[in-house]
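Worked example 3 (structure in, sequence out).
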């Protein structure tokens, strides 16, 4: 391994390139790409690479980028693309199609606020928009986790018990353009972790129809198969963690990651880089005698309900931090996770950092004071943190 000082954008591209070269003895690697801030430097780096088998195709839109990935994946190649914000929204039709075709495509998404008005900073609403698309979703906390998650995503996606596309998410600019020392393995080590892709339903010499008409009972069967594959993801993910640790010497985080939760009576639940700030507040609050803990949701789809219920079992007060807003409802994470809190727990939603506002320890501490003063939950609260 080598230690590289790279942005999370470059970390994602480097991992994808290594995964692609690891499949050269099979049916190669490729994908369609289209630029959009703040993920552009990821695909710029990837476009500079040469592959012995396959290529990166520059296309005219995000919709076409996913179409190229689908075509290459159906031919049995390992595939990758990246996008963000309105680009993901434009790609949506083919995002759903890729999952329904059961194609193990990996996509890196840089979370960015949907516009207009145009905003290039972080908000999780773009990828959460795709929560019902049938893709596995991971949210990363740092550059190393972005790199590791891309490699892990391929092993998970290509497992025949799963065969689903995977979305690896990172926060715009907080990670995408921030440099960090990252362990980058050599190609032979990656090959030890990633077996050659052998897609069971890849296209060959025999003519077949892809994407034909389904009658109702056929759709029911396909949706059941898709749901069953999603249900198998947690077990397969744990196996991937074990293999990753054996090959690379570090273990990827669990789907639900706990911090000082053993005796916690108060907790914050968050995703992605917000979790780092929350942990700093936990340590400070513990110094004042507050039994505060933190839970990070790394895997959003499939939703790890059982693990989350276990993590929150001792909580009397729970603050759920959303870096998104579902208009007319509240935060998406809150809407899905609040039922996992134990009976009698006060569960308050805080929507914070929308549009890229910097979530600082003092902002989280302010939410803690609000949570401790509550006897009952109120309406979802939008916390303004300023510029």
């Amino acid at each position: 391994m080598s230690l590289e000082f790279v942005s999370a954008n470059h970390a994602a591209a480097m991992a994808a390139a290594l995964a692609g070269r690891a499949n050269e003895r099979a049916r190669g690697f490729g994908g369609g790409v289209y630029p959009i801030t703040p993920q552009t430097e990821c695909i710029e780096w990837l476009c500079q690479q040469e592959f012995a088998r396959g290529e990166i195709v520059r296309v005219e839109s995000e919709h076409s980028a996913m179409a190229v990935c689908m075509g290459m994946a159906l031919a049995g190649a390992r595939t990758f693309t990246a996008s963000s914000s309105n680009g993901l929204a434009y790609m949506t039709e083919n995002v759903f199609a890729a999952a329904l075709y059961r194609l193990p495509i990996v996509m890196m998404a840089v979370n960015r606020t949907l516009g207009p008005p145009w905003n290039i900073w972080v908000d999780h609403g773009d990828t959460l928009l795709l929560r019902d698309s049938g893709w596995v979703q991971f949210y990363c906390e740092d550059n190393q986790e972005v790199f590791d998650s891309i490699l892990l995503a391929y092993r998970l996606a290509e497992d025949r018990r799963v065969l689903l596309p995977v979305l690896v998410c990172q926060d715009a600019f907080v990670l995408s353009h921030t440099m960090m020392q990252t362990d980058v393995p050599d190609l032979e080590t990656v090959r030890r972790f990633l077996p050659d892709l052998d897609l069971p339903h890849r296209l060959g010499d025999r003519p077949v129809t892809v994407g034909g008409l389904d009658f109702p009972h056929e759709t029911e069967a396909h949706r059941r198969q898709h749901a069953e594959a999603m249900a198998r993801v947690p077990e397969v993910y744990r196996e991937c963690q074990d293999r990753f640790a054996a090959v690379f010497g570090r273990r990827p985080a669990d789907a639900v990651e706990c911090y000082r939760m053993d005796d916690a009576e108060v907790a914050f639940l968050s995703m992605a880089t917000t979790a780092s700030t929350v942990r700093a507040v936990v340590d400070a609050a513990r110094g004042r005698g507050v039994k505060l803990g933190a839970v990070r949701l790394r895997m959003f789809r499939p939703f790890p309900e059982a693990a989350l219920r276990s993590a929150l079992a001792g909580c009397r007060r729970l603050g759920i931090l959303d870096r998104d807003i579902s208009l007319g409802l509240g935060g998406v994470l809150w809407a899905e996770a609040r039922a996992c809190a134990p009976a009698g727990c006060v569960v308050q939603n805080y929507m914070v950092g929308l549009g890229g506002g910097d979530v600082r320890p003092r902002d989280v501490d302010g939410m803690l004071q609000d949570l401790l003063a509550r006897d009952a939950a109120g309406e979802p609260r939008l916390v303004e943190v300023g510029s």
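Notes: The CA atoms of residues 215 and 221 lie 10 Å apart. The chain has two domains: 2-248, 256-383.
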